[in-house]
Structures are given as structure tokens and as C-alpha cells.
Amino acid sequence: MKKIKVMSIFGTRPEAIKMAPVVKALEAEEAIESIVCVTAQHREMLDQVLELYKIRPDYDLDIMAHGQTLSDITCKVLKGLEGIIHETKPDMILVHGDTTTTFAASLAAFYSHTKVGHVEAGLRSFDLYSPFPEELNRSLTGRLATLHFSPTESNVQNLINEGVSAESIYQVGNTVIDALIEVIRPDYKFEDEALNQIDYANRRVVLLTAHRRENLGEPMRNIFSAVRKVVEDFPDTELIFPMHKNPKVRELAQEYLGDSNRIHLIEPLEYEPFANLMAKSDLILTDSGGIQEEAPALGKPVLVLRKETERPEAVAAGTVLLAGIEEQTIYDMAAKLLGDSVAYDKMANAVNPYGDGKSAKRIADIIKSYFLK
Ligand code: UD1
Ligand code: UDP
């Protein structure tokens, strides 16, 4: 029997983390031929994940360049995929989430009349400029997709409200939980001795990540000033910031946070140590999307360094708070959690609105039945 050809296309760290379980689930299906194409919109941060999951891409567009603009990424992905899609003729192209790789790959699929499956479909902030350009990327990808794999009920509802046919939407949970469950271990030891040296029992670890385009500049200065003050005012805290590879983030981080002995500016961690560091942290400050999904599952309070979120479920469940991008508000909210154990305990509940760790298998099953029906 002819196998169903599914080509997964991704390019950045979070897409790779969340697509790795899907690639594994597709590979496990007899009826499916799984092909992986990476755009390498990210390079080192993508390769860390490929290495962890032992994924050897069949195609690698290797497009990353320092100072790359959104147009650069879009054009290179679109042009780079043209020949590959023509050569492989997949039955379906699977994309993930909201990056420019996601949108450009969906458009390339559309131009070649190839069906698109969209993993992590239907999240909406309802503000086209925040997250920028991700809100538009995700919406346009939804417009181009044949199958929509949505994490939560409200994501499904968003698509229905936009007129997407209910039969094409599947609520499957978020594959990030599949990935997370696999790497968390209570007795985890870091390879980096500096992370083992931290006295997790007696110090409070504040974990920071920041990278969003709309936060570059003034908002990021506000964020860094606020966390610096938090660390100064709470002498039992250690701040760990695995810095995104974006030079614009790193320059600001060095300027604002570079000279304090309780602030650790480190390289991006591989997924396994990062997830286990989240599990050992006391408070997480982030503008990341994925971390808003992972941290609640670990029972870690999260302050989201953004004005909005397309992930309202964890806010509703109480482990995530929107802290915005103003220095004083971020400081006040972090100080409250570090200074008031009742407020802290109220937030530190393990809740998981995002799935049961079986999302990837569901996606593979749905694709199979779609083509075999
Ligand atoms: C991209 C995605 C964003 C996602 C984020 C995850 C878009 C528009 N943005 O943003 O949705 O949340 O990835 O991290 O798709 N760099 C390296 N090495 C790497 C990765 C990045 O040096 O491994 C540097 C490069 O100088 C690159 C810059 O970071 O030009 C920015 O990368 P880019 O993919 O354009 O944007 P991100 O901010 O990473
Ligand atoms: N992450 C990682 N190493 C790090 C920081 C983050 O592996 O040093 C993981 C994190 O657990 C999450 C994903 O990367 O799964 C989030 O990526 P990012 O914040 O870059 O993108 P976003 O989720 O905002 O699109």
C-alpha cells in the first residue's frame, strides 16, 4: 500500500520542541512516511532540539542570518520550499504555531496545492500587533489549513467563530506537554556544574526569559530594570537568564544585568536542562509563549511580560498573571510574590489546561484516518 507522505516543516526552537513528539508519532505509524524539513530560521537553538530528539532532517534550508528581517525569512522559506515540495510531493505539510516559518511554509504549500495540517491552531490574542507578527502568522496559517489541531476548547471556539468548519478542527491538547513529561526528572543533575552549585533549598531562584520582537527596546529596558531591582531588594534570590541568541536581547541584558553576582546570564539551555531548571525555580518571568504552557503544569507561578496573551487558560487557572511591560508594575508583582507567602502559595498550584501528554499520537491518528477514509 502506498504510504501517506507527511512533511513536517519547522524552523525555530519552540516549533522543534513541540513538533518533536509529533515527528516521533508519525515515524511510528506504518501507514505514514514521515519527512522532516527544517528552515533553520534558528540555527544553534534549533540544532539543540534536533540533537536531543535525534531528529535528522531530510531537508535543511539553513536560512538563518544575523539581522534577518521578516521579509528575509518569508522570501527565503517560500523560495527554498518550492523545489522541495515539487520533488517530494507530500500528501500533507504539517506546520506548527505562529512563526514566520509557519506562515511561509503554509503559503508555499498552498501555492503547490498541498494540504496543510496546523498544529497549535486557534490561539488568538485579538491584537494583530501583539504578539507581532505571530498573531497574523497564526491567523493566516489557519486560513490556509485543511486540518486544525487545537490545544484547548477556547482555541476550537476561536476558529469556529471565524467560520472554520467544525469537522476540520480537532481538540488534541498541546504537544508541549508530551515533550515536557518526557524530560522532567526529580533527581535531575545538570551537566553545567554552575547550575548544580546553586543552593535550591535555601535560595529562591527567579528564572527569566525575554525575546519578543515587540518587547525589543524600551519594554525590554523596563523589564531588565525591574528584575534587577527585585534581585537587589530580595537578597535570598538568584536570577538566571538563559539569554536568547538574538544580539539585540543580549546587548541590553549585558547593559542592565551584566554586573551583579546574583544574576547569572547564561547561554540558551538545551530543553532538558531548561525544563528541569523550571521545575527547580520559584518564580518565572517570561514573554515566551511555550513557557506559559509548561510552567503551570509544573506548579510554578509565572509573570508574563506582555500586555496580552493568546493563552488565557493558565491565567484563568491562576498560575499565570499578566504583568505587562511597565517597570513599576513588573517590580510590584514580583515583589508581592516574593514577599507574601499567601499570595505565592495561591499561585503555585500545578494545573494543566494544555493536555495529557498524548497529543502527538492523536494528531498522527487523525491524519491517518483523514487519508484512509
Ligand atoms: C522567532 C519567532 C518567534 C518565536 C521565537 C522563539 C518569528 C517572526 N519569530 O523569533 O515567534 O517566539 O523565534 O525563540 O518567526 N539567533 C541566533 N541563533 C539562533 C536563533 C536566533 O543567532 O539559534 C539570532 C539571529 O541573529 C537571528 C535573531 O536571533 O537573526 C532573531 O531570530 P528570529 O528567528 O528572526 O526571531 P526570534 O526573535 O528568534
Ligand atoms: N527553552 C529552552 N531553553 C532555554 C529557554 C527556553 O529549551 O534556554 C524552551 C522552553 O522550555 C519552551 C521553548 O523553549 O519549550 C520556548 O521557546 P521561546 O521562548 O524561544 O519561544 P516561544 O514559546 O515564545 O515561541
Key terms:
373 residues, alpha/beta, 7-stranded parallel beta sheet, 6-stranded parallel beta sheet, globular, binds uridine-diphosphate-N-acetylglucosamine, binds uridine-5'-diphosphate
Summarize the SSE layout with pairings.
Blueprint: E1 4-10, H1 13-27, E2 32-38, H2 44-52, E3 59-60, H3 70-88, E4 92-96, H4 100-111, E5 115-119, H5 134-144, E6 147-150, H6 153-161, E7 169-171, H7 175-183, H8 193-197, E8 204-209, H9 218-233, E9 237-242, H10 247-257, E10 263-266, H11 271-280, E11 283-286, H12 290-297, E12 302-304, H13 312-317, E13 320-322, H14 327-339, H15 341-347, H16 359-372
Parallel strand pairs: 1-2, 1-4, 2-3, 4-5, 5-6, 6-7, 8-9, 8-11, 9-10, 11-12, 12-13
Helix pairs in contact: 1-2, 1-7, 1-16, 3-4, 4-5, 9-10, 9-14, 14-15
The structure holds uridine-diphosphate-N-acetylglucosamine and uridine-5'-diphosphate.
Uridine-diphosphate-N-acetylglucosamine binds next to helix 1 and helix 2.
Kindly summarize this structure in a few lines.
This protein is α/β, with parallel strands linked by helices. It contains 16 helices and 13 strands.
